[in-house]
Amino acid sequence: MNSIRHVQGHFKNARDQELFYYSQFPPQDVALRGIVLFMHGLGEHALRFKHVFDHLNAHDFGAIAYDMVARGRSDCDCENVRGHSDRFAHFVQDTNAFVTFAKREIIPAMTASDNASAPALPLIFMGISFGTLVGVHTLLSGEHKFAAAVLASPAISVQWTPLLVVQSWLSKPLAWAIPYAKIVPAVNIEGLTRDPAFLKDYLADPLNVTDNLTARMGQETLMAMAALEADKRVETPSSAFCAMPFLIIQGSEDKVTSLDMAKSFFNRLANKDKEFKEFHGLFHCIFNEPEKRDVLAHVAQWLQQRFQVIAPAANAHSRL
């Protein structure tokens, strides 16, 4: 009997750290539309989104994901500090390294074909919250070609209030003087969801990181956001970045990331095919709100409208 296929393990990044990965694909006899690289948020890990992968599989997409450094089942970046990275660039480097690994090890095994002329499956980016910031910088790096992007509750910018400007100015010396001190407020836990069962599970998960950010991590994140705000490629019609279809989804009551800044980023995008979908009343963890089925259905429909099924049996060893 055919069933969902998955494979998990560890791969090494350029800094010789072991990072956990998980991939999940439909049954072998299902022709795929594409493969989705999914990036989790600031404090979570890949396996917390298995229900998202299930939904993608049910609509003919494979899913690949990994735990970012110092999160989930992955090694720490340095000093054994959970939730910390010395450089934001490490996240982008690791993501590109994972895609390279997936292209070499995971995807060929999951999509093996006797048809040598079968077209390559499109690679699609999908992420939530902090994962979208890493993802957009990964897309802009140009190391791998992506066919589309889905950003959920994007943490790609902040509203620069006078207080935040002062905090940012103070964070620079602190990031160097006490880089591992967890002094930067992170996620507003109560603003994550309206589902008390999810919130209880979130707080009980030992693989989640729920404490403050380190001084260095906070500063690096602000710098990554500022770099994105200054990057003209997102508003240049001829750029490779703007050739991709873009979907941004966010809850109207998101108190963790800024809805206004997400809309501002969307308005900057020069992509011809772009959509901003606001879900009324939903909080930040849009894939775990009581209306999550509606959210996932919208994403699946958007993807299916843009990616057709590759020729039957092009991605299967056999149907025996």
Describe this entry's structure for a reader.
There is one protein chain. By secondary structure, this protein is an alpha/beta fold. It has a single domain (5-306), classed as Rossmann fold (3-Layer(aba) Sandwich). The protein has eight helices and ten strands. The strands form two sheets. Strands 1-2-4-3-5-6-9-10 form an eight-stranded mixed beta sheet, sandwiched between helices. The protein has a two-stranded antiparallel sheet with strand order 7-8. The protein is globular, with a radius of gyration of 19 Å.
Q: How would you summarize this macromolecular structure in one to three sentences?
A:
With 320 residues, this protein is an alpha/beta fold. It contains eight helices and ten strands. InterPro entries: AB_hydrolase_fold (IPR029058), Hydrolase_4 (IPR022742), MAG_DAG_Lipase (IPR051044).
Number of helices: 8
Number of strands: 10
Quickly give the CATH architecture.
3-Layer(aba) Sandwich
Task: Kindly provide the radius of gyration, computed on alpha-carbon positions and rounded to a whole number of angstroms.
Answer: 19 Å
Whole-number tally of structural domains? 1
Element string (H = helix, E = strand): EEEHEHEHEHEHEHEHEH
| CATH H level, superfamily name | Alpha/Beta hydrolase fold, catalytic domain
The percent range for strand residues is 15-25%
Which parts are unreliable, with pLDDT below 50 for 5 consecutive residues or more?
313-320
Classify the fold: give the CATH topology.
Rossmann fold
Helix content: 25-40%
Protein structure class: alpha/beta
Protein name: Serine aminopeptidase S33 domain-containing protein
Pfam families: Hydrolase_4
Domain Serine aminopeptidase S33: 33-291
InterPro entries: AB_hydrolase_fold, Hydrolase_4, MAG_DAG_Lipase
